[in-house]
Specification:
Blueprint (H helix, E strand, L loop, with lengths): L2 E13 L6 E13 L3 E5 L6 H8 L7 E6 L2 E2 L5 H11 E4 L11 H11 L4 H14 L15 H12 L6 E5 L7 H16 L4 E4 L3 H5 L3 E6 L2 E7 L2 E4 L4
Parallel strand pairs: 3-8, 3-9, 6-7, 7-8
Antiparallel strand pairs: 1-2, 1-4, 4-5, 9-10, 10-11
Helix pairs in contact: 3-4, 3-5, 4-5, 5-6
Length: 238
């Protein structure tokens, strides 16, 4: 399968505010993500998970190395260009939903399309199509407070799919849900992957990671292991 995202010799160093102390959050990381791949990223607190996801999601840039998203090397892009790439090529699913409480399901889905400059009639059609796709067609006029946690997360997934993204990024997507509802959300992810979507999720739950085709474990800013279909591929030590 073609690569949709490629991380090459990538490092990220932060300087502690008000000091000259540097902290390496990521160290010479190399990862390829293929189209239609379902990947879990795991690691202890401070392992580099959040930094890696921020770079993959075009929310941050590496200090050195390259990040190729689709056909674009986004490693050194200016903030406004990076923002444009992010809005068109990345979909985000958050643990805490981040829905606008005053708006209905359809209106929440239409917000990102408004910023993409899509005309109102097309916005409404696309929003309804995605509400149906995640099983919420009959809840389209409801506001978030009228929905269960699982339904709110389905709205988030539909919202993330608005721009038909190259990558769908999920940060602990079942963390705020009970186990049964969480399994239903993971089944929806399974379905999206079967339709060719590329999903990368951060999780601390081995049960969630087991659902994925690939599990990458980070330790001290490096790839400690990369397992596909249960066959471990240990990362070379540096």
């Amino acid at each position: 399968m073609p690569s949709v995202a490629s991380i090459r010799n990538l490092s990220k160093i932060y300087r502690k505010p008000g000091t000259n102390v540097e902290v390496a959050a990521l160290r010479t990381v190399d990862i390829e993500f293929e189209q239609g791949e379902y990947t879990a990223i795991m690691g202890a607190s401070g392992s580099g998970k959040s930094t890696l996801m921020n770079i993959i999601g075009c929310l941050d840039r590496p200090t050195s190395g390259h990040y190729i998203l689709g056909d674009d090397d986004v490693s050194r892009m200016e903030d406004d260009v990076l923002s444009e790439i992010r809005s068109r090529k990345i979909g985000f699913v958050f643990q805490n939903f981040n829905l606008i409480q005053q708006l209905t399901v359809l209106e929440n889905l239409e917000v990102p399309m408004f910023y993409l400059g899509i005309e109102p009639a097309k916005r409404r059609r696309r929003a309804m199509e995605l509400a149906d796709r995640v099983g919420l067609g009959d809840r389209a006029d409801h506001r978030p407070m009228q929905l269960s946690g699982g339904q709110q997360q389905r709205v988030c997934i539909a919202r993330a799919m608005i721009n038909d993204p190259l990558l769908l990024l999920a940060d602990e997507p079942t963390g705020a849900l009970d186990s049964k509802t969480g399994q239903a959300i993971l089944s929806l992810f399974d379905e999206l992957v079967s339709q060719g979507k590329t999903i990368i999720l951060v999780t601390h739950d081995p049960g969630v990671a087991k659902r994925c085709q690939r599990v990458i474990r980070l330790h001290d800013g490096r790839v400690a292991s990369d397992e596909r279909n249960g066959a471990p591929e240990m990362a070379a030590s540096h």
